[in-house]
Amino acid sequence: MDIEKPKFCVVGAGNGGLAMAGHLAIMKFDVRLFNRSEDRLKAIKFEGGIDVTGEVNGFGKIEVATSDPEEAVKDVDVIMVVVPATAHKNIAKMVGKFLKDGQIIILNPGRTFGALEFFNTLKREGCSSDVIVGETQTFLYASRVTGPGQAKIFRIKNSVPLATIRAYKIPQALSVVRKAFPHFVSGDSIFKTSFDNIGCVFHPALVMLNAGWIEDPIDFEFYLQGTTLSTSKVLEAIDKERLEVASALGFRAMSAREWLYYAYDVSGKTLFEAIHANPGYRGIMAPHNTNMRYITEDVPCSLVPMASIGKKFNVETPLIDSIIKIASAMHERDYYKEGRTIESLGIEDLNLKQLRLVAIGEDPK
User: Which of 261, 295, 318, 344 is the most exposed place for a label (fewest CB within 10 A)?
Assistant: First the structure.
């Protein structure tokens, strides 16, 4: 059934969630904002909405801002999950019992195998509703929270691939989500969106290689000043390993340079040139500590599953492994043990043919 004006729930009131909820409201969509704690909702409730600046300017009126998951997802058509990937399982547990047939859940983004983890969690929690679970390859916006109830959108990406855990459901999901966001395009399968996850190439290594500068702390532009000729070569090596793991699964992933052209219309002969040609990265400042999502999310939810799949199919990932080990040492925790591995995802015993069946939604057994 065609939905003329879908109702949205945005899960998460951080950098991305405020930008998306505010933008949806400015576009006159009915949007509810859900956050697990009330603290980030106080200013939004007081002001009645979200003030958005940058590529989008305006005030988005939010009728419902709540920490009650049942109130948040009731009667909405699309649930846009905009939280760190480490929280995906918890969100699935929180909303699972309130979901209804036909609802569409999109992880923005899924990082690597986010949709698979979310779908499996719903099943383990006893959710029997016929819902569509999907993920985006990257987040639609480059955005930041600028104050209580305020967000700045630096740039909206040109195109963002979206795929669902049952690949044949992609057109159905897109037909609804594109009513608000024509930027979303077919992502072919969750394997493609998972391995075209460029954040894992850019984020962890740039934080680690600039850790002294970050912890000083000195204000600097994360992508532009943080990417030097030397650091860009490390990024390229990580990118090469990612592409090799994807190839072992039987498909061609986009290189980081190709992705920058696809998402931002920028190009360069090297990754260094392409990053520095991107106006969307201007003004995005570096974090002031290393204990943040560029490591705490991107390592366990992106690099770990890529390394784990690599080991399964005998693809060596020495630089990715090194990043995981260094991050674990920096934060005194075991990111490989905490992360998404083939064991935690329940796919350790599946061969390549069976894995491909999982992506299209068929029983691999």
Answer: 318
Task: Catalytic residue, from 23, 88, 203, 239: name it.
Answer: 203
Whether 298 sits among the annotated catalytic residues: the reply is: yes
pLDDT exceeds cutoff 80 at 365: no
| CATH number, domain 8-195, options 3.40.50.720, 3.20.20.70, 2.30.110.70, 3.90.1300.10 | 3.40.50.720
Q: What is the mean pLDDT of the chain?
A: 94
Strands (E), the chain: 8-11, 31-34, 49-54, 58-61, 64-66, 78-81, 104-107, 132-136, 141-147, 150-156, 160-164, 184-186
Q: State yes or no: is 288 an active-site residue.
A: no
pLDDT band at 257 (very low <50, low <70, confident <90, very high): very high
Would you say 354 and 363 are in contact if contact means Cβ atoms under 8 Å apart? no
Mean pLDDT throughout 328-354? 94
Predicted local confidence at residue 88, as pLDDT: 97
How is domain 199-357 classified at the CATH fold level? N-(1-d-carboxylethyl)-l-norvaline Dehydrogenase; domain 2 (1.10.1040)
**Annotated catalytic residue, options 298, 321, 334, 363:** 298
